[in-house]
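Lecture notes, continued. The same structure-token format from the folding unit now serves as the input rather than the output. Read the line below as a description of shape only.
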């Protein structure tokens, strides 16, 4: 993910609004949106990444009951970010399934429900559904937090007081001491048995 979280109140670099009143109310409404190169550059700047090579949101808006709507779409994008270790450019292909439910009457939470996390797929229905806002939120959520170039790795630094054996990264892993507790590996045991026979 980029350095800032998605903020639905912040100005967006791209907009593809659909008026709900103009949507077909008895069949799925298909859409397929993608920004042009100039807009891709603005989105990259907004998202805090080096480059957005492509972005596409393709799916349907389907009426649910009298007033609600269901958005189902496939999101894909190709982004370039600096490696978190070397700063070399890292290209990543992103693919996500996106679902949004737009409700004309949002139920008010009560009791324990008020303390539970909100369903992030459900939103209050307004007069307009902005498909670009959906795509940009999907982009923000899908971006790698720590992109890493092939072969890039943090150097292992060993430090300890005089006379103390320094800890390595491997020593801090959850099962690092398991071999010692079990009396060595099976190969170690087999070797010991061979020695006893001789």
């Amino acid at each position: 993910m980029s350095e800032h979280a998605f903020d639905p109140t912040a100005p967006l670099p791209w907009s593809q609004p659909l008026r709900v009143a103009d949507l077909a109310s008895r069949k799925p409404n298909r859409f397929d949106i993608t920004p042009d190169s100039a807009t891709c550059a603005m989105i990259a700047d907004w998202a805090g990444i080096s480059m957005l090579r492509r972005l596409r949101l393709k799916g349907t808006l389907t009426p649910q009951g009298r007033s609600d709507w269901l958005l189902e779409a496939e999101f894909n994008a190709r982004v370039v970010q600096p490696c978190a270790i070397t700063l070399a450019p890292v290209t990543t292909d992103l693919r996500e399934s996106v679902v949004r439910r737009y409700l004309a009457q949002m139920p008010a939470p009560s009791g324990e429900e008020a303390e539970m996390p909100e369903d992030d797929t459900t939103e209050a229905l307004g007069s307009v559904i902005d498909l670009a806002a959906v795509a940009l939120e999907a982009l923000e959520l899908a971006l790698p937090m720590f992109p890493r170039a092939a072969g890039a790795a943090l150097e292992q630094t060993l430090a300890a007081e005089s006379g103390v054996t320094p800890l390595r990264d491997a020593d801090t892993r959850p099962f690092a001491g398991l071999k010692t507790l079990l009396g060595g590996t099976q190969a170690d045991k087999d070797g010991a048995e061979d020695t006893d026979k001789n």
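Point for the exam: Residues 131-142 form the longest helix (12 residues).
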